[in-house]
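Annotators were shown the component list below and the corresponding predicted structure, then asked to write short factual statements about the assembly.
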Amino acid sequence: MRVAVQPEPFDPGAELTAFSVGLSGMGAVVSFTGVVRDLPGGGLTALEIEHYPGMTERAIADIARQAQERWSLGDVLVIHRHGRLAPGDAIMMVATAAAHRRAAFEAADFLMDYLKSRAPFWKKEITGDGAEWVAARDEDETALTRW
Amino acid sequence: MDVLYFAWVRERIGLPRERIDTDAATVADLVEELRGREDRYAAAFADLSALRVALDQELGDFDAPLAGVREVAFFPPMTGG
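Structure shown to annotators:
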């Protein structure tokens, strides 16, 4: 398992290649990359990600351990950036490896649902008009009941 | 204990963390104590349903006892991913 919480940009392709090395017995690798999305009408200058140093790493490791208990996974990767990001930047990625595809897909989906609502990150949208904290969505909380 | 604030809670209170000597038995008691201090705390803690709390970096609830806890953090619902 690798968990990285970092301000630096990362290369999702290079991370996926490195993750995929040496996974003998694993028939499936699934990855998801989250990208900073512009506002529907445009105008997003930056996205600022605040986090809780210490708790963030613990919370993500705990979520990844839960995934490993539920599915038989060869490996798990979670990268999440903090600080100031621009539209189009990769903000986070998860990757899972498993013997079969369904476990890899489900574990990645589970990780994403829990990262959204249980990892201590907060997003602030910066536009030419000011700055606004992104409100949590009820759907994200509801999504956890799937598991 | 150390009390930490994140996102708009931090902005409303005006600082990221502070050391508080308190006899509060629970998180809710601590919140009451803070609310009584100044308007900025009352504003930050106006609606507890809009807040989450972590005790020693584990999510908890407002009824949780504070005995033995070293770090309490208040923040809005998380928006990662």
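Statements collected:
1. The radius of gyration of chain A is 16 Å.
2. Residues 2-146 of chain A form a domain with the Aldehyde Oxidoreductase; domain 3 fold (CATH 3.90.1170.40).
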